[in-house]
Amino acid sequence: MNDIEFILSELKSISEPDYLKKMAHFGIDISKAYGIRVPHIRKLGKQIGKDQELSLLLWETGFHEARLLATFIGDYKQVSEEQINAWVSDFSSWDICDQACGNLFVKTPYFKSKVLEFSQAESEFVKRTGFVLMAEAAVHLKKEPNETFLAFLPIIEREAYDNRNFVKKAINWALRQIGKRNVFLHEHAIATANNILAQNNKKANWVALDALRELNSDAVLTRHGL
């Protein structure tokens, strides 16, 4: 199952035009979308299996669901820095950004350098990518040392003022996930949130307050034995 036209026809066959309204409601760009629920796309991806060449071809079609499928079937071991840069420059929806980061980019040797690069970008979705990579790393890279995440916290503190919806939510996500990783990072994430509040910047306050709400919750404190 590796013919592009056949796969696009398969996607069309499982589309729900009415679902486009829900996608738009959640801030997803539907300018070139079929209207397909993610579990259906993921199921198709499992049927296809890993195929890096096909992943790149699907991305080039520009269709929203084809690009999501591309993130599911891509082989992170074959993802180049050039591919990351090219795909990130194409991002126009948070869901594709997040799937590409979680399924592919965070597993590459480039993820730390891309955090540093993208987290200070001007473009909303490029900048989001930097912080989504932080969050995904905190959740999935079990062997990554604490020092990696300690280096991310000053970036979070520095950029917390960015009140653009898809950026601030990713910054908040990164801070929360780092703080939930272990007791040591929990302490430093709390300190970072308090430093953000000390900036007296109303635009930054939401990032810190929302993170503190979860990091000081009974569920997180119990998990950390606090």
What labels describe this entry?
mainly alpha, 14 helices, globular
Order of helices and strands: HHHHHHHHHHHHHH
Structural class: mainly alpha
Low-pLDDT ranges: none
Helix content: over 70%
Largest sheet: none
- Count of individual beta strands: 0
Terminal CA distance: 51 Å
The domain count comes to: 2
Instruction: Count helical runs.
Output: 14
State mean pLDDT (0 to 100 scale): 96
| Overall radius of gyration | 18 Å
The best one-word shape is globular
Beta content comes to under 5%
Account of the 3D structure:
By secondary structure, the protein is mostly helical. It folds into two domains: about 1-75, no CATH class; about 90-225. The protein contains 14 helices and no strands. It has helices at about 5-15, 20-25, 40-50, 50-60, 65-75, 80-90, 95-105, 110-120, 125-140, 145-160, 165-180, 185-195, 200-215, 220-225. It is globular and about 55 Å long. The termini are far apart.
Write the layout of secondary structure elements.
Blueprint: H1 4-13, H2 19-25, H3 38-48, H4 52-61, H5 64-73, H6 81-90, H7 94-103, H8 111-118, H9 124-140, H10 146-159, H11 165-181, H12 183-197, H13 202-215, H14 218-223
